[in-house]
Amino acid sequence: MTPERRRLAELTGDLSAAGGVRLVTLGDGVERGIRTLEFRTGSGLAFDVLVDRCMDIGHAEHAGRSFGWRSPTGFRHPGLHENADEDGLSWLRSFSGLIVTAGLDHTLFGGEVPADTYHYPPRRSVRHGLHGRAGNLPARLTGYGERWDGDRCVLWAEGEVRQAAVFAENLRLVRRIEADLGGDEIRLVDTVTNAGFEPAPHMFLYHINLGWPLLDEGARLEADIRETLWQSDSVAEQKADHVTFPGPAPGFVEQVYEHALNPGADGLHRVAVANDRLGMKVTVEWRAEEFPYFFEWLNLRSGNYAVGLEPSTHHVSGNAAAREDGSMIWLGPQESRTYKTTFRVS
């Protein structure tokens, strides 16, 4: 036993006095029945992993100050979700939290695409809703806890999400989330595998949502933007500043941007939202080769006030366009892709 680990053991009867991971089940309202892993690092960083919501991260705070967005929907149980309801927009009825995963075979707005790769004549096409199915799929929890590596204690959780149908896709997401005891960062490692035996389309996006009090009037975006490749019509109509953020406004229409970023010398993209008044900044970093595209979602509507940072495998034009221009990722049988992302609070 190392000196630091021995000292902690002498001071505490249980590691939970310093931090740890605890499995609980939410018990009321639309959240009833959702298994949740509560992470506390002891530095002030605390966040919840929603096991039954793709192991996405819901509530997140540092030193009692929230930075993960909380929408009016709450963390809705996936059993209440209807993927094809409201012309594919039902995803918006369960849209809340620091991370909402989009994929595994579709991201962005819905639509209908060919299903010929599945060789099942009655299934001529696949109809997708907004941002796909993954964010409302429960995980099989394969493990969680605390692991010592010398003087370093790693808090961790791992689970498997399966998106599958007979005569259709068979995709598996293995997600691992880590944070160090005493640390201020969250590490996310995702591996997506085509567990079937026909080629499967793959699209992947993280909808990373930051809210009040980190997001407030005067908070700002920090990103090395080389060029803005696309923006929604609402940008020209409203002209809200997407770098230094205004306060909330009734009836605000979301402004969306696709930015081309300059990676650092280490090949990483880094994007942050900073609030000088709070002395708080949340930085997200990822490998440019894994997520070559990046969207900024500016939602200043009163009661829904949020900014979204969205690393993506594909351009904003979506599924059908990716098939047409050859940019769709086709995973062969048993082929995998891995994505590593870090969140840092400073």
From TrEMBL:
InterPro entries recorded: DUF4432, Gal_mutarotase_sf_dom, GH-type_carb-bd
Top-level taxon of the source organism: Bacteria
SUPFAM superfamilies, sorted: Galactose mutarotase-like
Originating organism: Nonomuraea angiospora
Protein name in the entry: DUF4432 family protein
